[in-house]
Amino acid sequence: MLLTKKCVLTGLLVVVSPGTPLQLVVGFLFTVFYMMLVLRTSPYIGDHEDILSFLTSFSLSMTMLAGVAKITDANAR
Questions:
Q1: How far apart are the C-alpha atoms of 28 and 76, rounded to whole Å?
Q2: At what angle do helices 47-76 and 21-41 cross, to 10 degrees?
Q3: In this structure, how many other beta carbons lie within 10 angstroms of the beta carbon of residue 57?
């Protein structure tokens, strides 16, 4: 699953409207989906690994959201 996440975030997002807010919105939606999947399934043996995976996905989601806000603001000016 982790390899699929990496492939989507690097390979698929390159093809989706490069340089537009849509590209970041698709990345944001995918990272939120993955974050909720990790939260729901708890795929790792220990609880610490599940929490760490959730927090890293949350951090990536917030980074994508900040990117959407920044590129939208830059396009508005």
A1: 20
A2: 160
A3: 20
Residue 72 corresponds to which tokens in the numbers above? 């939208």
For residue range 50-64, list pLDDT tens digits in order: 899 899 999 999 999
Q: Which residues contact 38 (CB under 8 A, 6 or more apart)?
A: 50, 53, 54, 57
* Residues 6 or more apart in contact with residue 21 via CB below 8 angstroms: 68, 71, 72, 75
Cβ-contact 26, 8 below 8 angstroms: no
Q: What is the CB neighbour count within 10 angstroms for residue 16? A: 13
pTM of the model: 0.82
